[in-house]
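Exercise: predict the fold of this chain.
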Amino acid sequence: MTQSITRREVIGGALATGASLLGLSHSATAKTYGGAMPGSPTAHARPEQITGDSYVFFDRIEVAFIAAAVSRLIPADTLGPGALDAGCVLFIDRQLAGSYGRAERWYMQGPWPEGDEQQGMQGRMSPAETYRAGIGAVNDHCRARFNGSSFDQLTATDQDALLTAMEKGELQLQNSKANSFFALLLQNTTEGFLADPLYGGNRGMIGWTLIGFPGARYDHRDVVSKHGEPYSLPPVGITGRKAWG
């Protein structure tokens, strides 16, 4: 007499076969973790705090240029300190010295037609190459026009005029596209002013304090329902606050 087989038994047999092929048994259960992380932290899980005033990518002349430029893009005023005080030079330096500067996550194989403005950067050069070529080209232009003075030696008025000409694409540079360089410089300066202090910029949480951003504070239950009221608590970075140390 032939024994009938139900659909449930067929499915169960298939699952058992699959488990045996994977080296599992019917008694295999999911692991649970209590009081411990499921794996060891990696370098990517917690980047090293960037501090100090030593530069890895920029040379002395480039540091002078970037310091002058970021001081004009986000200047110190009556509202508070500016990009230079916030450590934006250090932030940009370390970004250019890393994978971002090398454009490791960008498609860089071409072809290289001239793109529209809405398409963003459409060039052969990585961010690091763009900065190196751009700084050299702007300083060459300044020396030729201002009796040998580099960008950082100009008056604030002349610096503003040059940056405006770069932004509008009116400044013609040798081996560098002025408006593309300006756009990248402005973007990175803003990032350095508002990024977590872990990455070298936003020193003392200057940027967050200016815009009233709470940062990485974990709990907002005591203020979430207080609409239209100023947020009085100081901002908190990924690594906490010095006052908590």
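Check your answer against the key: The chain has a mean pLDDT of 84.
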